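User: Could you check the structure of this?
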Amino acid sequence: MQDLVKFSPETLTYNEAGLVPCIAQDVESGEILMMAWMNAESVAKTLETGRVTYWSRSRQSFWIKGESSGHVQELVELRIDCDRDALLAMVRQTGPACHTNRRSCFYTAVRDGDEVEIMTPMA
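Assistant: Sure, the predicted structure tokens are below.
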């Protein structure tokens, strides 16, 4: 059995801006919902509150997913990749994850060299 190691956000590998990418995935469907950035403090806030908290590069402030839209991401589990430089947030998503009102931010596919919209906004 593996010995448990206490997690600390400081043990992650951040880029030159002090950020780490975080992919949000729906825990039930497995659908990839979005990618956003976190810093050490937003990782800590996410784990403390259970509400996924990102770092907004444009606003230079914390962004609690769903705080203004109501499209909340409830954290089920946070996973760390093998290099400790990317995160996977397994979430329960309420409503759309994308600011375009789509379920996922990944709504454009490249097919035969053309961009194809594969997902319309939610009602």
